[in-house]
Amino acid sequence: MSNLVLQASNLSRHFSDAEHRLDILNDLELSVARGECLAIIGSSGSGKSTLLHLLAGLDKPDGGEVRVGGEGLNGLNEAQRADIRNRHLGFVFQFHHLLPEFSALENVAVPMLLANRPISEARARSFELLKQVGLEQRASHRPAKLSGGERQRVAIARALANEPGCVLMDEPTGNLDPQTAQEVEEYLEKLNQQLGIAFVMVTHDHQLAGRMDRTLLLKNGQLQAV
């Protein structure tokens, strides 16, 4: 069994209009090993979010291939890509994107219910995940009753719901004050050590990037070691 949970080979993406073509990614290569913590940094407009969308199968490349959990995304329809996402990937964004009408526990359960896991099993696992991020006492609270840091920890618990091989993160602490951001970073570090799940994180926070196993710079459409 391969130790790689995510791969991109010769990945290219460009955007065009009637007069111009803008090359965002050029034959990019990336391999992420099980349990690895990887930070991707780069200037605004360098293509970091585009890369994350391609890795998640939310966008299609103009060239090359992405493999998630050993499964290639090329040639799959949206339903098939969504199935691979739900089985192999978790997501944490700068803005938590929790469902406001649902409790913390119900928000965490959503990916499991979409995977047709029994409700009782989904509820039990959701509570355990909230416990791992220190929020078992807040399980019944809706997002409006939670602080920014608590909401982001619920989002992290939700990302872990289906035991993914890799969690993709887009500026996960970018909307938090420094102290709260540090608390969230410590939870991420603990979860990585406990669960062995790979994290791929796009961030402008060089201090957070420095805590990762590896940092790559996206520049001129390619990834460079820092």
Describe the global form. globular
- The CATH topology comes to Rossmann fold
Q: How helical, in percent, are the residues?
A: 25-40%
* CATH architecture assignment: 3-Layer(aba) Sandwich
Q: Low-confidence stretches at least 5 residues in length (pLDDT < 50)?
A: none
* Total DSSP helices: 7
Give the number of domains: 1
Which strands sit side by side, in order, in the main sheet?
6-7-8-3-9-10
Overall pLDDT score: 86
Q: What does the largest sheet look like?
A: 6 strands, mixed
Tell me the name of the CATH class.
Alpha Beta
Assess the beta-strand content as a share of residues.
25-35%
Q: Please name the fourth-level CATH homologous superfamily.
A: P-loop containing nucleotide triphosphate hydrolases
Gyration radius, to the nearest Å?
Answer: 17 Å
Q: Describe the oligomeric state of these chains in a short phrase.
A: single chain
Order of helices and strands: EEEHEEHEHHHEHEHEE
The class by helix and strand makeup works out as alpha/beta
Number of strands: 10
Distance between the termini: 29 Å
